[in-house]
Amino acid sequence: MALDRWIALILLGICIVYGYTAWFTMDAGLAPFMRRNPIWPSSFPKVLSVLGILACLIILLGLEKGEEKVGEIDHRRLGDYFYGQALLLLGLMVVYALCLRPVGFLLSTSAFLIIGSCVLGERKWHIMIPVAFIATGSVWYLVQEVLGIFLRPLPAFMGV
Amino acid sequence: MLEGILIGLQTALSLQNLLVVIGGCLIGTFIGMLPGLGPMSIIAIMIPVAITMGDPSAALILLAGVYYGAIFGGSTSSILLNAPGVAGTVASSFDGYPMSRQGKAGKALTIAAIASFAGGTIGAILLMIFAPMLSSVALLFHSPEYFALMVVGLSAIAAFAGKGQVTKALLMTVLGLIMATVGEGALFNLPRFTGGIMDLQSGFGFITLAMAMFALPEAVFLVLKPKNLGDSGGEIKDLRITRAEARAIAPVIGRQSIQGFFIGVLPGAGATIASFLGYAVERNIAPKHEQEEFGQGSIKGLAAPETANNAACTGSFVPLLTLGIPGSGTTAILLGALIALNVTPGPRLMIDDPQIFWAVIMSMFIGNLVLLILNLPLIPYIAKLLAIPRNFLIPFILFFTLMGAYIGQNNATELLMLVGFGICGIALKFANYPLPPLLIGFILGGMMEDNFSRSMQLYGGVSFVLERPMTLGLLVIAAGLIIVPILRTRLAK
Description:
The structure holds 2 protein chains of 2 kinds. Chain A is mostly helical. Chain A has 6 helices and no strands.
């Protein structure tokens, strides 16, 4: 089965769960006076769930005829691409998200930029390190000091 | 009117106000380039500065300059990095980004600057002429018409769907609408589909979703397929647009200035709908061979949303200045600033404070001119961004993507959501599902449901469709937008 149909199948599952919630569970706690309204909180989601399920089925059953189009990247030839680097960068983003508050903006961002470049194969440390520190400091100054949006600069245990 | 124009010119051309508008445009452009900081946040941040200025004309001139600058700055990040920071510039990335990948970044930025200038200037002329008249037309729009207008906006997804892609585009739209129902709706005040998770109480963040669907997959694709980046090496070979290209975009600019302005006048519509509709309309009326270029780096596909969003920004000042009703989030913040400065916008503004009314309009002309003069010479330097080596640029794109989501919500959970949605976006892109309809559905979903629910409550059911001719007319247009491309394809066969 083609990837677009697999995705349609997953989306069908999501639409069914969404529809089940809208049709059968959402209105249970509705106040009696709201039941007399022509529109309920579940009305719009009910329509959407039906539309979503229909669209998924059309794709799954291949009812819409069209040429098979290969996307920007052919997933069948994934081995030709640098997917290891991509996965490492996504992992790095998750680590950054988890570290931003406890470790502080300055350290976590500098580390993210340096490790990110390193993952992509850069080894010019004399450029990477100063660029990362200068960029991190500038962004922190702009966001926190100029725009007034709080970004904890240093680790939490340092009390800042 | 002539007297008003002279008063406005006198106020706007004072040295202080000229410096204010130049400063506002520069601040707006540079901060607007940071994904995640759209006009609304920048204006909100600048309000304390504007209020301390004391003079309402100067304050409003500053904020208007910031507004235009931010819209242009947002287009720059859309075109160069495919990272639209605001909904109004999403459509600019559809053709702007492919152009920069083809080594035409300079040309794309020039077209964006000229189209923005033209849209803003023509919009200001229309504002001057039609402001009093249009305020009465805008009053005719009620919830049923707004709902129908949203349906028209969503039907425009037909413009994004290629052969055999209509259902996929529709599914993505529905998915966007479904995502918009998560959290507390304005009308029902009940948490829906949150699964008891507190962070979902206010729904998904627009910036997070925009970053996850556009910037993140793009950055990951650049990693997967390195040759995608640096095709141009940051060299600006063709900054100038040719005579043939100018001839091609001139009618687009003319049409979209007018259409964008009138859409901007409608409260709630604004630059986002204007830019998407502008793109959709131009694609649908283009000759067949040109239609296929849309999404691949078409100059018309870039000029249309750029003109429309700037014209709509100007149009959104009509309900604010003449009725005191903000037509968009940005003008709502401007309204707050005006009230803080003891100015009450409304029908009496033109009579009681003509210098403010006309100074704002005149500052729009000056602001647009300043933006053009400042930005055209800067384009080669801005486009040099593409010459930064991939190994340095990609971590920075990812960092700005993360920052955009974080600054918008000030919540680290948002970053995890960004990565999660980003992975979904990458999978959808692999399977060739169009992502713009998802974002359009998400943006319009909340407004659409609110207006639909209000119409149902007012009319006790769906009878509003037949009882309100304007609603019916708009829904017929929406049906046409879907049916015409299908018929065209069938007739072509």
